[in-house]
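1st attempt posting a full record on here, be nice pls
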Amino acid sequence: MPITMLTSPAFDQDTGSAKKAAENGAVFITDDGQPAHVLLTIEDYRKLKGSEPTILELIGMKEGGDIEFDPPRLRGPFSLPVDLT
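the predicted structure (as C-alpha cells):
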C-alpha cells in the first residue's frame, strides 16, 4: 500500500487530490515536518478498525454512561475468600 505525505498547507489547498491519493493508500498530513493526521478511505478505516463491534454498539448505547451492575454472589466451591492486602 503506497503512502503519500502532504504538508498541512498542501492538504488545505487541494483536498481533492488528497482524497484521490487515499484511494491508493494512506495519506499522511504533516505539521512542521512531523506526521499529524492520516487520511484513509472508509474501507481502509473499517479494515483497521476490525469487524467486531464494541460493547457499546452491542448493547445499543449511543454513548458511554453509568451502568448499574449488581452481580449475584457466588455460592458453592468457587466462592473462596480473597485477601486483598
